[in-house]
Specification:
The complex is a heterodimer of chains A (242) and B (163).
Chain A lengths: L1 H10 L2 H5 L5 H13 L1 H18 L12 H20 L10 H9 L10 E5 L1 H5 L17 E10 L2 E10 L2 E8 L12 E6 L2 E6 L9 E3 L2 E7 L3 H10 L6
Antiparallel strand pairs in A: 1-2, 2-3, 3-4, 4-8, 5-6, 7-8
Helix pairs in contact in A: 3-4
Chain B lengths: L2 H23 L2 H16 L11 H17 L1 H6 L15 H6 L2 H11 L3 H12 L4 H8 L3 H20 L1
The chains are: A alpha+beta (242), B mainly alpha (163).
């Protein structure tokens, strides 16, 4: 009921919103209402069409709603926008799994030096983080999105974890700018080039925190993705700024 | 207002008053007559004038004059149209010439399909470019009502243009 009342109250201000004449105290509320209300969004399109037609002195060609092909173009743009959003979603912070990460690091003896701190963060925050200054991919393969980004602090070093996923599959890529001594236990490995460096892929059927280090850099790739997807993701990573 | 003041008003605002009246009424002859009526009213002190003339006041005067003219349209049609006073050299301005284009005729035709209050709001905002505050003063209503009238007017226009 409240939502309906808000809708009726705010709807009359659509023209003022379009003309940037909304009273200051109301702008935020109106903007958020429009963002969540398809009826008002459609109404706004109609009102804009009427306004633009008058402003352009009755130029019918300038009114978007007149020509059917404009609807087709708009629909195509919408589909492309949806695809783009699904393709690349901005990273989000998920606090609930921090303990899971920590447990993974400490479990099964993979990590000789137990982590002392583990924080989830955002990709933007990571980009601005001087100790871990790296270049990250602007785009990822289709249907693969960055799910989580975490940074961890162990004894004497810091590390960074990125979890990608999509289409029901998950992949972990952990990059560590400083050496981390880990053991690989009875798992098949294969050579792989990551960011221009010869590394080793650790094959496993479950998502685990495993890594391998060389030349002072350690990488973890534990995946249940198809081989091609892994290669594509790895290839999309930029060179580390060592 | 004395004759000099009305002449000065004519000099400064005739195009504005005429343009609005023409858009509102839909034709030049009626618009010219309405504007002449405004001058006459001012000369005969039948209209109160503020100390400082604002755009909002001007549009309010011309809008009221247009409304009055519409009310007495049939009566006026039965009478001879006497031009009471003539100001200016009678030549059309550049804006008037531009408004005579085919597109402008279509615009005026569609604007005529709007109810008067909505038409006034649309013209004042989208053609005369008044702020909402000025419009509220000219139309003697709140800013919310201005927005509401614009909503309705623009929706009708969008529908009319589509069809």
């Amino acid at each position: 009921m409240t939502r309906l009342i808000d809708h009726l109250r705010l709807r009359r201000w659509l023209s003022a919103y379009l003309d940037e004449e909304v009273p200051e105290g109301m702008l935020v509320q109106l903007r958020s209402h429009i963002a969540a209300c398809p009826t008002c969004q459609q109404d706004l399109v109609r009102i804009r069409a009427g306004r633009d037609w008058v402003i352009r002195g009755g130029d019918t060609a300038a009114v978007h709603t007149v020509h059917p092909w404009r609807w087709v173009a708009a629909a195509a743009m919408l589909v492309l926008a949806v695809i783009a959003v699904r393709w690349w979603q901005p990273p989000a912070v998920h606090a609930m799994d921090v303990n899971f990460y920590a447990a993974q690091f400490r479990s099964e003896g993979y990590c000789a030096d137990p982590c002392t701190a583990l924080d989830e963060t955002t990709l933007d925050a990571l980009r601005e983080s001087p100790p871990l200054a790296m270049e990250y991919p602007d785009r990822l393969p289709r249907a693969i999105v960055l799910k989580r980004a975490i940074r961890y602090t162990a004894l004497g070093y810091q590390g960074l974890g990125l979890m990608f996923g999509g289409a029901g599959k998950r992949i972990w890529i952990f990059e560590q700018p400083e050496r981390l001594s880990l053991a690989v236990r009875d798992l098949p490995t294969a050579p792989i080039n990551i960011c221009g460096r010869e590394c080793t892929r650790i094959e496993c059927s479950q998502v685990r925190l495993l890594n391998w280090s060389k030349d002072g850099l350690s990488f973890v790739v534990a995946t249940d993705l198809e081989q091609g997807d892994v290669e594509a993701i790895v290839a999309s990573l930029r060179r580390l700024k060592s | 207002m004395c004759g000099h003041q009305v002449a000065a008003l004519n000099q400064a605002y005739h195009d504005t008053l005429f343009r609005f009246a023409r858009l509102f009424l839909g034709n030049a002859a009626d618009a010219e007559e309405v504007v002449q009526e405004i001058y006459l009213k001012l000369l005969e002190r039948r209209a109160t004038t503020p100390e400082e003339i604002s755009r909002a006041w001007l549009y309010r005067v011309v809008l009221n004059a247009c409304m009055d003219y519409r009310k007495s349209w049939w009566r006026r049609r039965r009478e001879d149209a006497n031009v009471l006073m003539t100001f200016g050299d009678g030549r059309p301005s550049a804006e008037q010439v531009a408004m005579d284009s085919e597109r402008a005729q279509e615009l005026r035709r569609v604007l005529q399909s709007l109810p008067r209050k909505l038409r006034a709001a649309v013209i004042l905002r989208d053609l005369e470019e008044l702020s909402y505050e000025e419009m509220a003063a000219a139309l003697d209503c709140s800013i919310g009502t201005v927005s509401s009238r614009l909503n309705r007017g623009r929706r009708i226009l969008a529908k009319a243009v589509r069809s």
